[in-house]
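Hey, I'm writing a tutorial for new members on how sequence and structure tokens pair up, and I'd like a real worked example in the thread rather than a made-up one. If someone can provide the structure for the chain below, I'll link this post from the tutorial.
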Amino acid sequence: MTRPIVILMLAIVLSTPASCGRDPQGSTVADSQAEEWVEAPMIDRATRDAAGLQVSGQASPGSRIVIRGDTRTAFAVGTGSDGRFDLRVPAPERDSLYVVEIQTGEHAVPAATRLLVAGDPSGPVALISPGSPSKRLDPGTGLDVVDSDGRTRIASGRAVAGKKVAISVDGGEARIVTASPAGRWTLNLGAIRAPSATITVDGTSHVFPGEGGTDAPIDRLVRSGDGMALRWKLSDTAQQSSWFTISSPGPSARPSR
């Protein structure tokens, strides 16, 4: 069963544009009159409850943050003197991909990442961005997501900061990564050698069902094995897919023996 995702790509509207990427989440642009840098918003937390989502992050001080779902849905809040913002977003009735942008004067600068919120409360809340690992924001530890561009796969997840995490694929030799101070780890699994794979993280195995093939729905969150998958277009010729583990694992997510 598939459900449509709301997607809106916004253009950067600038009088005299000059931009440079600094982070997978955002970009910066110079204001030719004020000679200041406008920093695109960076979301660092999203807390979900029955009423909706509390989204928090960092952007340029004294600016306006807008989260857009479609042409009829937008939520806005101002940033404080320290650039922090907290914005309440109602619970979506369906899976949604939000565009997050900053508005200052006549400038509108969107973040490079988009905010994915599953309509199903057990589904993912995550930041997705072209060419970068997805970043889960809903609670969880262990394997969070497997991202793929059709040639290579990247696994990422969470653990206690500084913890050594053992990851293996299809029973092969374990590779060790260290969780960052923020409690996140990422591992490039290398070139795709089989349609599916069993990924074991610290003794717990997940059956990754694969990218779904060229006939899989585009820009839709679908149930895939014991997780949820999103396949989305980067351009007319490039695509990226993300497979998210779910909070209530089925028989495929089990301790290894």
